[in-house]
Amino acid sequence: MTSQDRPALAVIGGSGFYDFFDGATDAVTVRTPYGDPSAPIAVGKVEGRPVAFLPRHGARHEYSPHTVPYQANMWALRSVGVRRIYAPCAVGSLRPDWGPGAVVIPDQLVDRTSGRPQTYFDGNGIHVSFADPYCADLRATALKSADSAVHVHPHGTMAVIQGPRFSTRAESRWFAAQGWELVNMTGYPEAVLARELEMCYAAIALVTDLDAGVTEGDGVRAADVFAEFERNIGPFKELVRSAVAAVADTETCEHCRVHAGVALPFELP
To answer: What CDD domains does the annotation carry (predicted)?
Structure first.
């Protein structure tokens, strides 16, 4: 891969979002110190600029949320040149007025996972700022890129649960009582690993269901989640493409450069 073909921008596709490009792509296989990523990285063009795409769950949804190789995925993207990432994902809503089909650009997250490797720094006293977990530049670009026909909510807190099960009603009601708006299974540790590798990162969330505590009935079912995502995948992809095409800078922003003045135990890829 030549320097002109190295993708500085990337999209990580979530459940139901297994491909991104319409034209020809190159497949880049990357080995990392953390094993293989979920799939080879596809590199194609969006508005003439090279962009990487990685399906988070694998090309055939081989990985459940708690088994996704998050460390390998983020390391592999950084290794091929990526510095800024959009991460579209499916979410449950904790608000009855944000129903299926709504799009949210989260600005906060709450980690409710357990046992997932969540750092590249197990020693040496390395700590990263994570008060604002999403890149403000990428969030603003996504908001400006939304078609007028698609209403995008500009703020939201996403609770990331362990999975693969959905929430109980009691858990869902508890999350809502905290003032959190969204539930997801994959947004962490992906976001913090991007920050540790000094890559800008922003989620774009598509609501596929009302979480169990919001309404009565059978609760959340996986088949319904996938069906709702499929109904919205066309315009959702267009929103992501528009955001990628509109990103003005392809270098990490100052907010996401968290290691200034710090001696790291290894070089970033």
So the answer is: MTAP_SsMTAPII_like_MTIP
